[in-house]
Amino acid sequence: MQLGxxxxxVALGATFFAHGAQKLFGWFGGPGLEGTAKGFDxxxxxxxxxxxxxxxxxxxxxxxxxxxxxxxxxxxxGAVGVMGEAIRTVHGEKGFFxxxxxxxxxxxxxxxxxxxxxxGPGDLSLDEALGLKLxxxxxxxxxxxxxxxxxxxxxRAAPAPEPEPERxxxxxxxxQVSAAA
Length: 181
Prior knowledge:
Blueprint: H1 3-25, H2 32-42, H3 48-68, H4 72-91, H5 104-119, H6 126-129, H7 137-157
């Protein structure tokens, strides 16, 4: 049995699931979908609701798949996609270190996901029980590529709607003051 790999996979899955459930359902003290959507809007990731559903759904789904050891490359692609977007939109400009809001934590999560896609989910997994041998270097590279390309493809397939221009309303004319006073 590959105990270390199983522990890593389940811990990674639980972490992704918990973070996604915070955003999606408001579980574990999270903001829920409406709060996440508002937060995304305020960070410029518009439309916030669509992006919140995609991010939270990807995190929750990838986490559940990892925890179960099912469809491991798909789980890895989802994890890489969410963390890649987090780096691109929020953490990248803040540098490497997490203490400054940087991307080190996101990068480690991505590396763990790709590693599990390469090594496989371990003996105690649904992939193993079902006889699915979906792991190895090509699966790992495919998960990495799909995870990095997926968000770009989603943006092109369903672009954010153009913001409505603010309406210009003419101010009322000031009252004419009579000069014959």
